[in-house]
Write a structure and sequence with these properties.
There is one protein chain. The chain folds into two domains: 22-178 and 243-283, Vaccinia Virus protein VP39 (Rossmann fold), CATH 3.40.50.150; 182-240, Single Sheet (N-terminal domain of TfIIb), CATH 2.20.25. The protein is built from nine helices and eleven strands. The chain has helices at 22-29, 35-40, 42-58, 76-83, 95-109, 123-129, 153-166, 180-186, 244-253, and strands spanning 66-70, 87-92, 116-120, 138-143, 172-178, 189-194, 198-207, 212-223, 228-240, 257-262, 277-283. A hairpin with a 4-residue loop joins strand 7 and strand 8 (212-223). Helix 3 crosses helix 4 (76-83). The chain is globular, with a radius of gyration of 18 Å.
C-alpha cells in the first residue's frame, strides 16, 4: 500500500459533486477501510521512534519534554513515545481513529497513559480553541507518513503555519514524506495489499507537470463464508509529491528554517534522489 496518510481540510481541489475530497470520503466516512494499513505498521513505528528519539537527543529534547504529533491517526508513534516518557499530544480529524488511539493507549500505557493526550479535530480549529488558550511548551512537532500534499500547496503552507504558531522558539519540526524524485523513477506502479479482512488494489500514475500522483484505489471486503470478495469503495486518490527543495520552500514560506535532511527515519542516512522517503528537520528560530 503506497504510504498515503491522513490530513484533511476543506479544499476546492479534488472534490466530487458533493464537495467532498477523497480524504473526507476515505478517512472520515470510511476510516475502517484504511485501518488495516495503519495496524500493519504498528511494529514499524517502534523502529521509527528509535530514529525520532535520536534526533530529539541531538536537539537536547529529553524524556518529559512535550511533543506534538500532527495527524496522529491511531497513535502509533504517540503511544511508543509515551512509553519512553515523553509527554505527547496529537490530533486527528477522524473520530474513529482517535477512539482507537485512546483505547490502545489505555491498554498499553498503564500508569503512563497520561503521557498521551489525543485531540479530535483539524489543526486550524485546535490552534484557536485549545492551544491559544493554554500554555504548551512543545519541544518538537512531528508529521509522519505522508500527511501533506492532499490538496493544493497553499493548504500545506497553511498547515505548516498553524504548526509554527503553536511552536515555541527553538522548537523543531520533523516531517516524513515520500520523495518526488523517487516517485518519478518508480511510477506507474501497481500495489495489492492483502489483509485478513480487506484487500486493497491500487494503480498509481504520476503527472510530472503537476507533480501529482494519482491512484484509482479499490477496497474489497473479504467474504470467508462464500470465499469471495466484495467491492466496498472505489476512490480516486491524488497526492502532491514534493522534492526536497520544494518542501524546503514550503517550510520557508511558513516561517520554518530548514536544518537537515535524511533519507530514512530509521537509518538517518543522508537523503538522496533514489530514496523513497525523505525526512526534513526544521526549526523555529
Amino acid at each position: 500500500m503506497r504510504r498515503v496518510r491522513r490530513s484533511m481540510k476543506e479544499s476546492k481541489l479534488y472534490q466530487n459533486k458533493n464537495n467532498k475530497t477523497w480524504a473526507d470520503i476515505l478517512f472520515l466516512e470510511h476510516p475502517e477501510y484504511f485501518l488495516p494499513v495503519l495496524e500493519s505498521l504498528i511494529e514499524e513505528a517502534k523502529l521509527e521512534v528509535d530514529g525520532l528519539t535520536k534526533i530529539f537527543k541531538d536537539f537536547n529534547i529529553l524524556p518529559g519534554d512535550k511533543i506534538f504529533d500532527y495527524s496522529c491517526g491511531i497513535g502509533r508513534h504517540m503511544i511508543e513515545l509515551a512509553k519512553r516518557d515523553y509527554m505527547v499530544f496529537g490530533n486527528d480529524p477522524s473520530d474513529f481513529y482517535i477512539k482507537r488511539a485512546r483505547k490502545s493507549a489505555d491498554k498499553e500505557l498503564g500508569d503512563k497513559k497520561d503521557n498521551a493526550v489525543f485531540y479530535k479535530g483539524f489543526i486550524n480549529e485546535l490552534s484557536k480553541k485549545v492551544f491559544s488558550k493554554n500554555k504548551f511548551d512543545f519541544k518538537a512537532i512531528i508529521i509522519m507518513f505522508n500527511s501533506l500534499g492532499f490538496t493544493e500547496e497553499e493548504e500545506d503552507v497553511r498547515i505548516l503555519r498553524h504548526l509554527y504558531e503553536i511552536a515555541n522558539p527553538g522548537s523543531i519540526l520533523i516531517i516524513q514524506s515520500e520523495n518526488r524524485d523517487w516517485t518519478v523513477m518508480n511510477t506507474p506502479n501497481h500495489y495489492i495489499s492483502n489483509f485478513d479482512k480487506m484487500l486493497i488494489n491500487e494503480i498509481w500514475d504520476f503527472n510530472p507537470v503537476t507533480s501529482i500522483a494519482h491512484s484509482n484505489s479499490k477496497f474489497y471486503e473479504k467474504d470467508s463464508i462464500n470465499d469471495c470478495i466484495h467491492l466496498r469503495l472505489e476512490l480516486d486518490i491524488y497526492l502532491r509529491m514534493y522534492s526536497l527543495h520544494e518542501l524546503i520552500t514550503l517550510l520557508s514560506k511558513s516561517g520554518w528554517t530548514f536544518v537537515k535532511g535524511y533519507k530514512d527515519i530509521k537509518s538517518l542516512e543522508s537523503v538522496s534522489t533514489n530514496s523513497q522517503f525523505m525526512i526534513t528537520i526544521s526549526k523555529k528560530e
